[in-house]
Structure formats: C-alpha cells, structure tokens
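Hey all, quick one. A colleague (J.T.) asked me to put the iron/sulfur cluster job into the tracker so the inputs and the structure tokens live in one place instead of scattered across chat threads. No bug as far as I know, just bookkeeping. Sequence used:
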Amino acid sequence: MNRASLNILPLQSEIIYGPVPSKRLGVSLGINILPTSYKLCSFSCLYCKYDWTSKPTPHLTYQTDDLPRPAEVSSALEMSLHRLVKHRTKLDCITFSGNGEPTLHPDLAEIIAAAKRVRDQYLPEVKLAILSNSSTVGSAEVRAALEMLDLKVMKLDAGSEEMIRRLNNPMPNFYLGEIVAGLRSLTDIILQSLFVQGRVANTDPDSVERWLEKVREIQPRLVQVYSLDRLPTERKLWRVNLPTLQWIASQVRWRAGIPAEVF
Ligand code: SF4
C-alpha cells in the first residue's frame, strides 16, 4: 500500500476553507492560521489525516514567518462571510482548525478577538469554535484566548502519559498532569476522544478506566466519543465498532455523570 492509498488529505492551501460538513459541528467554515506548506503541530497522532508531523513543535512557536498575520486572517474571514451572507449559505460554526494545532499561533488571542468582531457583524448567531489537541492549555495566555470562543472542543484520547505517547506522539515536554489541570480550569469545554484498536488500542477496560478518571477530574460539559473515519497514517490501526464506542460513552454517562455522544 503506498502513501496515497492511505487516504491522507492534502493540506489546506488557504486561510479560509469550506464550508465543510462536520459530523460533530454541523456545517463548518474552517479557519487555518497555520502554514499552508507543512503541518505545524505539537503532536504526531498515528491517525492524523494530514500524515506525520515532521517535527512535533515543543511549545508555542515563534517562527512566525510562515504564519498568517492577524489582519490577514480577519480580512480573509470578512471576505468569506460577506460572500456566504450574500448567497444565504447555511452555516453552524466558524472553526479554528486547519493544518495542525491552531493554539500554536503566537497571536491567537488577537486573531480570535478579531474573528469574533467579524462574526458578530455578519452572522452573530453562528458559533465560533476551535478543534484543539489541548497541548498548550498549561498556558494562562492560551486559556484566556480560548475563553473567548463559543465552543472549545479539546482532545484527550487517553488517561496515561504512556498511552498518549504511543497514540499521539506529543512533543517531548508533554506532561499529562499539566494538561488535565489546564483543561479543568477552562469553562464549559467539550472533550473529544478518539478510540482505536490494532497495534495501539485505547479501548481495553484498563485504558478506558484511566481515561475516565481524567474525564471526571476535568468535568467537561460533553464528551464526544468517536473512531477513525478514514484509513490512518499508521496502517495497523482500525476503527472501533459501534457497540464498543457506545459502551465507552455509557461509562462516561453512568460513572462520571457527564453527557456523552457517539459519532
Ligand atoms: S493533533 Fe490533530 S493535527 Fe496534530 S497530529 Fe494529531 S490529529 Fe494531526
């Protein structure tokens, strides 16, 4: 099997992309505040749709040359929303996501504040969201920026550092305790947790138990439980069946008292 047949997606080539249909967010207009020529991420997940991260970035990046400036992002968003409103295109969310981890952008707060102003001007009812891998929530500055958003969809795939290292390949200075504390101090978050089986599996009772302990500590308002929807970067992983995902969600509901949905 060659790389192309692994269903790896091309990188986003612009700041604004979509709208795209999203199982978890509805009709979503994407904002990519990361480079367009390479993936910039603090993880290199085995299941990433954008192939491996060449070098997981060990913190907030200050190599800003490849990143769009805040004014470029807000003007691209304004042009796009102007067009969507003119064509009466339905939209549920405007989502920071794109070619890696959006919270690595050093001007995150300025960009989110400007995006909020543009959203309020054109489509105030549409939610402003982020899909984040949670790796930077130890930073008070990042948390303050995230609090400006309507939907903070934050990743936590496992409850032990060992499993996160195997599944998500984080940057070397990753500390699960710091991430859990950061997530707990954010308000009203949605936790996104992807489960896989195969060479690495986070669905056995012990792994689920350890993950559930962290979910209880964090107290999100919702947990999204899901699995692969494409062939992953690592070939020896496979999709978890629906009954297993439903069992994991039921553990969250009944044992942690937190709403959970399967996607
Ligand atoms: S956090 Fe997201 S972008 Fe980064 S490697 Fe994992 S799946 Fe890919």
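Adding what we noticed when we looked at it: Residues 41, 43-45, 48, 50, 53, 100-101, 133 surround iron/sulfur cluster (CB under 6 Å). The domain at 4-262 is CATH 3.20.20.70 (TIM Barrel).
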